[in-house]
Structure to design on (163 residues):
């Protein structure tokens, strides 16, 4: 039986920290679903379809091995998606105590709702300070985001508007 895991997030945009977690999750499971989920608590930079496309390109560029599916989910609970695709595990990256406090209640609720376990991966220290919100802020103020995101994302964010 295949071990399927879902790596959910806003990915607005995908960062090098996300890519590190995706690559390591792909090494731990037979099949990974990178799931772009709208987070109503955050104001969005990119449309969902654009985020999916950038993740797909970043995964291809990084030549991440294994079966990795990138898609989005906008209706119902995250665990409903997990049940639909036969995934029993969620994988999340944890950078700090703030992330632990944010993720712990969700992990408990997701296990209570559908028996879906959450596996937390610690970041590569090189990416521990990187977040999508930081990237959105630096980008919106005209700064260089290339140290924090895959090349395809930096090129997209730094392209002149309309290109
Ligand atoms: O990258 P983010 O913004 O930290 O990702 C948060 C996300 C999308 C994973 C989180 O908001 C989430 O799990 N949303 C799904 C909604 C849901 O199922 N809620 C009930 C159980 S916690």
């Amino acid at each position: 039986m295949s071990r399927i895991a879902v790596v959910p997030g806003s990915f607005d945009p995908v960062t090098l920290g996300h890519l590190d977690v995706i690559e390591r999750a792909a090494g731990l499971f037979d099949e990974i679903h990178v799931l772009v989920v709208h987070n109503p608590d955050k104001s969005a930079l990119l449309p969902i379809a654009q985020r999916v496309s950038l993740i797909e390109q970043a995964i291809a560029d990084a030549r991440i091995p294994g079966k990795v599916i990138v898609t989005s989910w906008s209706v119902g609970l995250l665990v409903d998606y997990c049940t639909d695709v036969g995934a029993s595990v969620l994988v999340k990256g944890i950078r700090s105590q703030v992330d632990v406090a944010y993720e712990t209640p969700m992990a408990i609720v997701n296990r209570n709702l559908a028996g879906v376990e959450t596996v937390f991966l610690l970041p590569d220290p090189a990416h521990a300070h990187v977040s999508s919100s930081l990237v959105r802020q630096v980008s919106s103020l005209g700064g260089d985001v290339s140290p924090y995101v895959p090349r395809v994302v930096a090129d997209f964010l730094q392209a002149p508007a309309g290109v």
Q: What stands out?
A: The pocket of 4'-phosphopantetheine is lined by residues 8-10, 37, 39, 42, 77-78, 106, 109-110 (CB under 6 Å). The chain is about 45% helix and 20% strand.
